[in-house]
Design brief:
The chain has 248 residues and is an alpha/beta fold. The protein has one domain: Glycerol-3-phosphate (1)-acyltransferase, CATH 3.40.1130. Strands 1-7-6-2-5-3-4 form a seven-stranded mixed β-sheet, sandwiched between helices. Helix 4 links the parallel strand 3 and strand 4.
Length: 248
């Protein structure tokens, strides 16, 4: 990569961060001034989408017809900080996203996310984790549409890791369809440990629903693995749980 290309990439990366700041400012105004959680959710989604529109990022969404009109739980692979913004901007505004509990430590971000409908799950402290998980289950039982990254975090290494059971327990308890989503391109745009994003084409593949009332997927673990395998089949990334064969 020559210096001209590196310079152009750096300029675009700074511009993309500026677009993010503008979108956060708009979302903050929505969170502060707009009454009604439903309207706030939809306007926050519009504000988030402006990040990609203003920065000329091409986003392709396939399989919109697989999203039911009613409530459901979407689960997606996690490769970058961009993932949550992407789904918030391009899925219907009714989805409330589950965010790692550490975001509670950042006051303005916590306020903005909470007012936009986000749920928080503690990953490190067991008591908080159990309490938060119960809240997610109750939200599903009440019929909320939830968006969850069941890997919990992302790594620099490409691939799809283990899915934590919480999203799928909530789906079974709430009798909600699970919609697997395969996200592509975000790891190239902003991988772990990089400060400036790089312009990339992004894809959202919304896959057919998995129904928890199907006897084959009545247990949260089988439901989780079915969703994981469908996402893997739609991605060009390795299965991080696959055990390498040992040669004789």
């Amino acid at each position: 990569m020559n210096w001209v290309t590196r310079s152009l990439n750096a300029v675009w990366g700074v511009y993309a961060w500026l677009c993010f700041i503008i979108a956060v400012f708009l979302a903050m105004l929505v969170a502060l001034l707009v009454p009604g959680a439903h309207l706030r959710q939809h306007l926050a989604a519009k504000a988030t989408k402006t990040i990609f529109l203003l920065s000329w990022v091409r986003v392709t969404v396939n399989g919109r017809e697989n999203l039911p009109d009613g409530h459901c739980i979407v689960v997606a692979n996690h490769a970058s900080y961009v993932d949550g913004l992407l789904l918030k901007g391009y899925l219907p505004g009714r989805f409330n996203f589950v965010i790692k509990g550490e975001m509670r430590d950042f006051g303005p971000a916590h306020f903005l996310l909470r007012r936009s409908g986000a749920k928080f799950v503690e990953r490190k402290e067991m008591t908080g984790s159990s309490r938060d998980a119960r809240q997610i289950v109750r939200a599903a039982e009440d019929g909320e549409s939830l968006g969850i990254f069941p890997e919990g975090t992302f790594e620099l290494q490409p691939g799809v890791g283990r899915f934590r059971p919480g999203a799928f327990v909530a789906a079974v308890r709430g009798n909600l369809p699970v919609i697997p989503i395969a996200i592509g391109g975000t790891r190239d745009m902003l991988p772990a440990e990089r400060l400036l994003p790089r312009r990339s084409r992004l894809t959202i593949d919304i896959l057919p629903a998995i129904l928890p009332d199907d006897p084959d997927f009545a247990h949260s673990r089988t439901l989780a693995e079915a969703a994981r395998q469908r996402i893997l089949a739609a991605l060009d990334e390795p299965d991080l749980l696959a055990v390498p064969e040992v040669s004789a």
